[in-house]
Amino acid sequence: MELVLYYHPLPLADPSQLRSILAAHGAELRVVSHPQLCRPLGELAGLSGLSVPPSAREYPRPAEPVMVFCGFSRERLDTVLDAFKACGAPAALKAVLTATNQSWSLSRLADELQAERAEIARSLQGGK
Predict the structure, then answer these.
(1) In 72-127, which residue ranges form alpha helices assigned H by DSSP?
(2) For the chain, where are the E strands, in sequence order?
(3) What distance, in Å, lies between the first and last C-alpha atoms of the chain?
(4) Strand duo 3-7 + 66-70: pairing
(5) Quick check: 63 and 113 in contact, CB under 8 A?
(6) pLDDT tens per residue, the chain (128 residues)?
(7) Is 75 helix (H, G, I), strand (E, B) or coil?
(8) Bridge partners of 28?
(9) Alpha carbon of 118 to those of 2, 6, 17, 114, 125: distances in Å?
């Protein structure tokens, strides 16, 4: 099953545009609420049999929207991302659920993505 976990820092944000785009492509949108930010991504995606020790570190609540794509082939992911772009879907941090990050919380994933973004920006500016 193709699924997108979606978090938006503003509780009143309306995900109906994203939900419609995904439904048109046979995929599901699952909104992640603030209390679920510390739960493992794999659990939020409905994977069973995860044995995840609690994290000793707390991560900040993401300050921007986050999308985690679960169960998409590369081709299907590209198709959905193109549809998002064509419809002017809101910007968000994006990632694919992997064996490595399925035990992470959404907050941890967002923290890692923001750190990667900052590192890429530094390298594009000549390592300053």
Answers:
(1) 74-86, 106-124
(2) 3-7, 28-31, 66-70, 93-96
(3) 43
(4) antiparallel
(5) no
(6) 899 999 999 877 889 999 999 999 999 999 999 999 989 999 999 998 776 666 667 788 899 999 999 999 999 999 999 999 999 988 899 999 999 999 999 999 999 999 999 999 888 887 65
(7) helix
(8) 3
(9) 29, 22, 29, 6, 11
Give the bridge partners for 67, in sequence order. Answer: 6, 94
User: How many CB atoms lie under 10 A from the CB of residue 45?
Assistant: 19
Burial label for 104, CB within 10 Å (0-12, 13-18, 19+), is buried
Question: Which amino acid appears at position 51 of this protein?
Answer: S
CA 31 – CA 34 distance, rounded (Å): 10
- Counted residue by residue, the chain has a size of 128
CA atoms of 114 and 14, how far apart (whole Å): 23
Residues whose CB falls within 8 Å of the CB of residue 9, separated by 6 or more in sequence, listed in order: 61, 62, 63, 64, 65
Q: pTM for the whole thing?
A: 0.90
For residue 116 the two structure tokens come to 């990667």
Residue 54 to residue 75: CA distance in whole angstroms: 34
